[in-house]
Write a structure and sequence with these properties.
CATH architecture of one domain: Roll
Radius of gyration: 31 Å
Number of strands: 5
Distance between the termini: 106 Å
CATH topology of one domain: SH3 type barrels
Strand content: 15-25%
Helix content: 40-55%
Structural class: alpha+beta
Largest sheet: 5 strands, antiparallel
Shape: rod-shaped
């Protein structure tokens, strides 16, 4: 008889507002997960897909297993051929390529490099040859 019955009636009026307050932490957690986990992973996947799509013959790559090789042939949209040692070629799934260590020059730049090599060989220019080797000649 010391407890008054008025306390039981106040809980019913605030029921609708408390549902939104209870739902707010779940929404906040989802937003945090999206910006910290989901969105960066999507960016990473997009960049990897673009890297794999841009593979060309002559690119030096690293596979998921840690094998370093040179792309010798693009067999299909899903497969490539790597040369991992002199005369040792393996077929790999292109999606297993994790990194491109060095890209080959586009066709236009490759032709210019070939012309420079030929002119250096014809002229016997030591400076031009040293640029091809590593730029140490004077």
């Amino acid at each position: 008889m010391f407890i008054s019955p008025a306390y039981a009636q106040t809980a019913g009026a605030a029921g609708e507002g408390s549902f939104l307050i209870q739902l707010a932490p779940l929404i906040l957690i989802f937003v945090v997960f999206y910006f910290l986990l989901i969105r960066p992973q999507q960016k990473k996947m997009k960049a990897h897909k673009a890297m794999v799509a841009g593979l060309r013959r002559g690119d030096r790559v690293v596979t998921a297993g840690g094998i370093i090789g040179v792309v010798t042939k693009i067999l299909s949209d899903t497969e490539a051929q790597l040369e991992i040692a002199d005369g040792v070629r393996v077929r790999i799934v292109r999606a297993t390529i994790t990194d491109v260590l060095s890209k080959t020059a586009p066709a236009d730049n490759a032709e210019e490099a070939d012309l420079e090599e030929e002119s250096a060989a014809e002229n016997g220019d030591k400076k031009a040859r040293s640029r091809q080797i590593g730029g140490r000649g004077k």
